[in-house]
Amino acid sequence: MARGYPFGNLFGKSPFQPIQDHMAKAHECAEALIPFLEAAMADDWELATKHRSIITKLEDEADELKSEMRASLPKSLFLPVPRSDLLEVISAQDKIANASKTISGLMMGRKMHIPEAIAASFMEFALESIATSAQALKAINELDELVETGFRGREVNAVEALIDELDHLEHRNDEQEIAIRASLFAIEKDLPPIDAMFLYKVIDSIGDLANRAQKVGSRLQILIAR
Amino acid sequence: MEIISQHGHILLVLACLFGFFMAWGVGANDVANAMGTSVGSRALTVKQAIFIAMIFEFAGAYLAGGEVTSTIRKGIIDPAMMAGTPELLVYGMMAALLAAGTWLLVASMMGWPVSTTHSIVGALVGFAAVGIGIDAVNWGKVGSIVASWVVSPILAGTISYGLFMSVQKLILNTATPFANAKKYVPMYMFLVGFMIAMVTLLKGLKHVGIEIELGLGSKFANAMPIAAVIGLMVAGIGMIFLNRIKDESIPSHRNRFGNVEKLFAVLMVFTACAMAFAHGSNDVANAVGPLAAVVSVLSSGGDIAAKSALPGWILLLGGGGIVLGLATYGFKVMGTIGKKITELTPSRGFAAELGAATTVVFASATGLPISTTHTLVGAVLGVGMARGIGALNLRVISTIFMSWIITLPAGAGLAIIFFFLFKGIFG
């Protein structure tokens, strides 16, 4: 029926709202780490298993959104920004969800115990990483406003400021990572060696979550750069 | 000659029927495209869009459709070629109406994109070139009409691009978009009123036999103050509606420009009126032009070159056919199109509509039959070029191009068949 109305078929589905939805989902994954970590720190592995399955489910949903979006961005669409840049943003966002899954997977698989000496700073470090992802979401949520203003002018500057703040958060997270590695180094010889190795690996993955959130910002910056 | 005196009444009734059929097709199909933008961006409900379309399509046809009607009547075909055989012109015009109407109906059923303008022009050229002779077609005029099909989308796109950029500069890219929208939106409303009034005063009214004389020297100077007053009146009415909209707080996860868009939705009501007016002035005229030619020949007893004014009832018949088409079938189509273009926000829709309406109205004023839908597509692309639309499907452009290529020979072929059919029946 509607095939015959060229005018109606002229409009494709705008990808910008779906990208925002996808980022919201990816950040939900990161946020779901908080109750998981709390349960893990308390050595309540039954509860941790529950939270781990929530993270897995959210990550699946994020993957599904990603595939849907990729399928709905054919080459014949005329977009206000390059299609390849959009696909890169989606890709970067998806990695936040993956990182959350990796962190929970590592800890779950080894029923990892965080040594008391670094427990407080470990949790703080994880929360900072998740806050970096929240900042990335904040920046991505400006996409519909960017479309509204035709990707120019004041709105671009506002988004630039959000991305600067994101870089700043990630940088601070890096410093925390260095500090927490130092504290772990100080106590590592008292730990079973393999446990220590994997502790380093988890710290690395948590740092990676923040890195990936920053990558989303960089991709957004490329998107709005003229 | 005796054929005309013998069968005059039958021919007249048939021509009216075919003209009404064609107009019905326009109302069922074409109007939905013209009004779809307003429905899609939620500035109007389907009911409101139909209501506006009924009034303004009619007004546009009646007040500004005269030039295009006369192009269809005597611009494309050289009437002098048929001075001795006026019945051939009558058959041909009837065949063109029936061909275009039939083609519209078939294409809508099959779901192909159609342009009423292209089918009428194709039908006229077809019957004249084959039924009368290659020289009967005014090829120069046909060339300029075809050129205008290329120029009109480009022009509309350019205007829309400019309008959209001005909205960005004056309103959206400022510290206080809402306050600025309240300030500048009435200006756009003035533009809408001024433009429509100007074209009507300069080009439309003489066809209905109204002359306005203020004694300011030229026609243009006469029209200016009247159009300005009308524009101010339109802006005044618009401001009353604008003042009802308050700047409410919007939850942070929603688009911050929601309130500003509400103001543009008011503006869109006005551009929707302009769009319907423009569509009426051009496409309705396409539908009734051939009918006007038939009536002129029959009423003058076979004198083709007679200088006859366009009888008002012909435009009424065309307008009536469109309204009926809208009421019986067009509202369904409008709903379908409206659902497909929900991504279009009022600030975009207004720019596209005003760009297209301006282009179409000016084409009407110069007597060029163009396609409203294609012009509107050009206008939307203009907004897209200004990075204003989330996603546009470029495959549609090739579809439209195909519709040109298909519609012209289809209209021509059908017209040739019907022409010889009538010639066989009436002799």
Quick structural gist:
The complex is a heterodimer of chains A (226) and B (427). With 226 residues, chain A is mainly alpha-helical.
Report on this structure.
The complex is a heterodimer of chains A (226) and B (427). In chain A, α2 (16-41) packs antiparallel against α5 (116-140) and α7 (154-187) packs antiparallel against α8 (193-224). Helix content of chain A is 81%, strand content 1%. With 226 residues, chain A is mostly helical. The radius of gyration of chain A is 20 Å and the shape is elongated. By secondary structure, chain B is an all-alpha fold. Helix content of chain B is 79%, strand content 0%. In chain B, α1 packs across α2 (46-64), α2 crosses α7 and α7 runs parallel beside α11 (346-365). The termini of chain B are close together. The interface between A and B is large, with 34 and 51 residues. β1 of chain A pairs antiparallel with β1 of chain B.
